[in-house]
Amino acid sequence: MKPLPKEYDPKLSEAHWQRHWLESGTYAFRGDQPRDNTFVIDTPPPTVSGVLHMGHVFSYCQADFVARYQRMRGRDVFYPMGFDDNGLPTERLVEKTLNIRAHNLPREEFVAKCREVVKGAEEAFRTLFRSIALSVDWKLEYQTISDEVRKLSQASFIELLQQDRAYRQLQPMLWDTVDQTAIAQAEVVDKEMPSYFCDIIFGVEGVYDTVTIATTRPELLGACVAVFYHPDDARYQHLKGKLAITPLFGAKVPILADETVKMEKGTGLVMCCTFGDETDIFWWRTHKLDTRIILNKFGKIDFCDDHTCHYIHTEAWNVLHGLKVKEAREKSIELLKAHKLLGKQEAITHAVKCAERSGAPLEILPTHQWFVKVLDIKDELKARASQCAWHPEYMKIRMEQWIDGLNWDWCVSRQRFFGVPFPVWYSKQAGEEGKILLPQASQLPVDPLQDLPKGYSREEVTGDPDVMDTWATSSLTPFISSRHSRESGNPSDMDPGLRRDDKVPADLRPQAHEIIRTWAFYTIVKAHLHAQTIPWKNLMISGWCLAPDKTKMSKSKGNVVTPVALIEEKGADAVRYWASTSRLGADTAFSEESLKIGRKLVTKLWNAGNFVALQLGNLKTAPIGSATKDHAITNPLDRWILTRLHRAVAKASEQFERFEYCDARLSVEDFFWNDFCDNYLELIKARAYEADPSALRTLYHCLDAVLRLFAPFVPHVTEEIYHHLFPRHGSIHARERWPRSADYPVDDAAEATGIAVVEALNFMRKAKSEAGVSIKFPVEHVALEAGLLARITPSLADLMAAGNVTGKIEAGEPAVKLAPKEDVA
User: Fold this and answer.
1) How confident is the model over 785-791, as a mean pLDDT?
2) What is the pTM of this model?
């Protein structure tokens, strides 16, 4: 048998095998198995934002452990890779890379620049994912901005419109003043920010009384349309039916009662503005209030809106007009103080709704947007979520809580540029002004700003300028990866609707916990509405990769670990090992110690492989088939280790079936380090050097299984050793390579012998350790409890050789007598 090189070179080996796997199609989906022997993974398409971080390595490796196991188990694994390369994150990357602003360029020119920039960003992702040995089939790659996927997205929208599930409406929406677009509820994050709780004095029409109203947004006084109190609040019953007069502006607004007012908060009186928060929207709708919009889309005070132009040019009008919100807040407080209209002012810290991408505080503005109805099917969506198996199971609670807390339908339109256009025109013809016009299925994909509906001229229609939220496309990944689009390369098979096929539901959706409310939720919505099914059978939820101090990695903190340099320095297998140390759903801190253990494992596997390779050179005929049927294996210790191997394979397999890759690795490591390396190799060295067939054949079976068990975690070193020792077997990562527990015998008597032998060996090791001598130090005499000795007897010779016992092992009061040190010296 060909011996291994003296040392393992991870850089050389990893680069070699990555090229080999790609060129040989080791991970190709063949499509030659029935559905029940096919494993379909709905792979997360990474957002093309230009940021390659440890979170990508962390979560994608964890999905890859499962993909490799399923392939080795014998299944045909459908494992694509996509790129979510449109939407705000990509636009922000382009703006930063080219130092431009989308709003300052013609739309077509900016989109062209986006297409160029994403090519380089996607190649960086490919390089990273290949360097970490993701076993995806790159022939199945897709982009969410491609013609095929745009066609699928537009077909999805048209179907929802025809189902009366999609609608366009002018309504107050969360608005990002930085990215200049509406956003959905799922893209909102709460940030703690400093502010002031201000007591502001309002007048009351027809009386000399004044009332005090507490607010954190004095800059919206010009947008005040009502004042509310709780109907049970005795302090304000006398105000019923009266009008309040807004300070600084003098507008008269109704004073109304509403049960949602919190009597204990502030003064118990609250102003309703259009719009400060979601409660304002509720009151505005419920009480059919006036609309006064004083903020524009850039987050500036603008009194020239149609709803506010009736204001007279008061001092506040002149001072506040054109100011951004923060400046307007400060100026409003100054004006109130100057006019003695400001009472108590209390510094506070409160949660402010901000845009997840830009980080900017959100405003609420009335805009025309496209929505998908979800509020009326919340119970159905929760039922769908329950039909999926969640790993870990408690993560399902996050989905249920999210659905319960939904207050808005899904806003799917964005006022941006690089995305999937809405396939909609609005007629300008007499008699059908504003009528929605849709393309024929054969026209898809369309750009309504460039293309035309059949039978209409450019002068007769207006194209919808908005693009879809990127989640409206990435929520279709189970359909994007479906057999229809994959085989034909043309999603026209989906028209006029998205039909369920034999790939939906997928077997697995791996994803991080922070996008349960977005990607997981929206995918469930689309699968439910289009295919009346769940999108996947299982969700495998990963946590975050944290900095070593267990805080979120941040450039500003200087605690970011970049994956490219780390893989180059430590090796991909060591980094993958670190990724395997985190349990499902758990946030895990980056750990240099785990990397060291990973590198130690690689070295140990190499050394074990080298030892076995040297011994197997004396094996006359290589074992064929399972160890269970290998009748040449007769020694109790050999049958003990095979029994332990049987249990390790069974345990790791069962854990992988539950997607518990971390537990599976621990089971394999326990066998490898403790049973195989620390004990078995030491116990049978003498027999191995003597070319005992039972020992050699057991070594063959054990190392063969160990390499295959570790292959999902450390694919490079296992392939390298496997190739050297078993060159005729092909790739260790091919189908049907996962060991079967049935191939290794269970011998209860031999297992009892092995346990006893290890106990006795550890007894001698402890004595040597306490005496401060090496593990190979000779032993003159050993006394063991009679029952233990009886169980050891079948393997006494192996124990004596491993313990370097020069005298006898006999029954008696347990004791170990070491050889005199001077004699050994």
Assistant:
1) 96
2) 0.90
